[in-house]
Amino acid sequence: MAMAIASSSSIREGDVVIVYERHDRMKAVTVRKGGELQNRFGVFRHDDWIGKPFGSRVVDKKKGSGFVYLLAPSPVLWTLVLSHRTQILYLADISFVICGLELRPGCVVLESGTGSGSLTTSLARAVAPSGHVHTFDFHEPRASLARKDFENNRINNVTVGVRDIQGQGFPEELTDKANAVFLDLPQPWLAVESVLICLRPNASCCSFSPCIEQVQRTCEAFRKYNFVDIRTFEVLLRSYEIRKEFLTDISVNNGEVEDASLPPQKRRRSDSSEKPRPDGGDAPNPSIGAVMARPYAETKGHTGFLTFARCQV
Amino acid sequence: MEVVKAGSCVLLDINNGEHFVFSRLTPAATVKLGKAKYSLAPVIGCPFGSQFEPKSSSLERSSRAGDGKDNNAGEEEEEEEENAATKDNRNLIDDNTAQTLSAEEIHSMKREGSSGQEIVNALIANSASFESKTTFSQEKYKRKKQKKYAPRVIIRCPTAKSVCEAYFSKTPAKIGFIRVDSLSMILSLANVGEMSNVLVSDMVGGLLTAAVAERLSGFGTVCSVYYTPKAPSLDIVGLFNFDSATSSRIFRVRLSTLLESYNSGLQNGEAAPLVVEQEKNMEDDSGTGKLPQSEQPMDVQPEKAVTEAEQAKDMEDDSGTGKPLQSDPSMDVQPEKAVTEASQTSVSQISENLEPASTNPTKQRLIQQPSNEDVSDWVKTGFSSLIVGALNADPLKTLQQLIPLLAPSAPFVIYHTYLQPLADCMFALQKERTAVSLQLSEPWMREYQVLPSRTHPHMQMSSTGGYILSGIKTLPQ
């Protein structure tokens, strides 16, 4: 039962806890008796965490004012905290791949390359408990680190192999076993023939490539090997920030309003029904307040193209 | 599920995305291709993904080989690109005189039993302008004529992806305009999977409930909660061919039941079972006249009655946003029958009709009613995540009611077609300090055509798939 919160369970030694400081500051910590976490908010002892439910707020020991939240790990949180050994896939692509490959418990999925295990973690959760992920990376140390992460996170339905899928294809024993295949390779077209051999009929493959030239060559290979339903997408997530803003109502006070460039705090807040003073003097400047949303100024422009293709029946 | 079974539901993909129809494969099931109707009997026993074409008066299986290819794929693709450069459309005049084959001649070809492909070939042969077109233009012309004269139907398996895409392309209002990338994001953010106990407020026809149930496949529970006097339609769940392991873990419950269990739990320090409330619910849910109350919740007819009556209403009702998703009339029962004989024409009983004289009293219903024990267990431990897709409900009020029912550290995801209600909700939640990791996002998706020398984004694109507010519940202080 990895990465599923067991509602009634509390934090035990050996558990991985996601320590949440801020929406963009989180880290994964493995709980150890006598262990300690030090950050800008203070010192936090692991012993205080043991026995508490996930979702608890803990206060630091030194000053007693700093706090962090202890959250249960999930594939989404793991993607945000894991150590990057390679460029990773993020939530928008991960969720689209899982839905696009029509994954569900019991599916057998093949993946190459493993990279930092970001997608692998989500794949494992999607097919658990009866399904399996066979993931391959040609870099032995990276494969080893990924194995360690899965073990630490108690993910037991993933097998990490060290293999060059581009050069050698998938192992023969996976012939006709796969319900889905995912490729994140520099030259995925070299693996398409092997993918065809591994895929069960009507099952799909998804290939992720940053460059359009790679996509073109991959689609060409899919066509050559008689794949159907070949479709290429881009997905992104646009995030919004919200603030309560106050906008000046210029219809009052005979059009004589206070300096609109002053920050909202300096202006008096009131509703627009307030009448202007007869002498036209220091009338309070009415403004209209509301919660407003706008996209964050910084956003991801591109991660990669996702090409799906289905094996014929 | 790899092979089409009798009595199951299939998604008929006509001309590769042009038209979608859901059909339940009863012996009388048919599909309309062009102007004629064809029996779907040949489909049974074939694998999902099979393609069929009309041959004389029945459907025959055909191969999709050459589907993804242009005329000459592989090494010849380069040659094509060179040829394309020499031709252009400077001398082509669009005045409808290029085609010399008349409509009458086409009709007589059809009467004589010419195949669709033969008609297409004849049209090409009799087109004065065909030869002067570029290769790309010729292929486009060919595909266009094939769609009209040689229709094909691909038998697709209903999955969250295929069902969502079909509805989104034809009748998006029925699923609250949830696009497939939005749906996939919701499922991931809510960490749906093994051992999950997911609370869903589903006012989008059952799409969310079904998608969650598919990702659980019986290894977790999905509880669809409602608060309207009559339970909202969850008909989409019926399209998925769920086995009994999966459907035994799909529940529907009234919000007041959950809240009363929660409140009494607060008073007593534990969640108490509420037998009286359960019976009251059964009466309320019936919607089609009085039906006998049964002591065992599993036997209750009203649940079936409501599903069927709504299914009928659903088929007749046109949401008014574009072409309605055409339900093949053979899907299930004739609407009129369903309303009056509601207690006898549930989905599970249709399957029973196909089995010879089988009496199966424990035949699995699509959606279960929870026992008192179920309710008190869920309320005591808390649901492991929450998904809300209820466009008429105020998001903040909804979350204020439902977040207390979640376990601490449980993620919640609320979808809406408008940004402002979610922004207001997020602002209030930030002040309340009941959640962390609050995020307001808008999924963006674009599809590309990737062909030699013709790679570009699709000309048509969906501008919006709605907005998603997500967060994680923290333990109240």
Automatic annotation (TrEMBL), chain B:
Please list the residue ranges that the record marks as compositionally biased, kind Basic and acidic residues: 61-72, 84-93, 301-314
Q: What is its main location?
A: nucleus
- Offer a single GO CC term for the protein: tRNA (m1A) methyltransferase complex
A Pfam family cross-referenced in the UniProt record is: Gcd10p
Q: By its UniProt entry, which InterPro entries does this protein fall under? A: SAM-dependent_MTases_sf, TRM6
Task: Give the lineage.
Answer: Eukaryota, Viridiplantae, Streptophyta, Embryophyta, Tracheophyta
Task: Give residue spans, biased composition: Acidic residues.
Answer: 73-83
UniProt keywords (A-Z) are: Nucleus, tRNA processing
Alphabetized Gene3D superfamilies for the sequence: Vaccinia Virus protein VP39 (3.40.50.150)
Write out the GO biological process terms. Answer: tRNA methylation
| Entry superkingdom | Eukaryota
Protein family per UniProt: Belongs to the TRM6/GCD10 family.
Under what name is this protein listed?
tRNA (adenine(58)-N(1))-methyltransferase non-catalytic subunit TRM6
Location of the protein in the cell: Nucleus
Role: Substrate-binding subunit of tRNA (adenine-N1-)-methyltransferase, which catalyzes the formation of N1-methyladenine at position 58 (m1A58) in initiator methionyl-tRNA.
Instruction: Kindly state the subunit structure of this protein.
Output: Heterotetramer.
User: According to the UniProt entry, which residue ranges have a biased composition of type Polar residues?
Assistant: 341-371
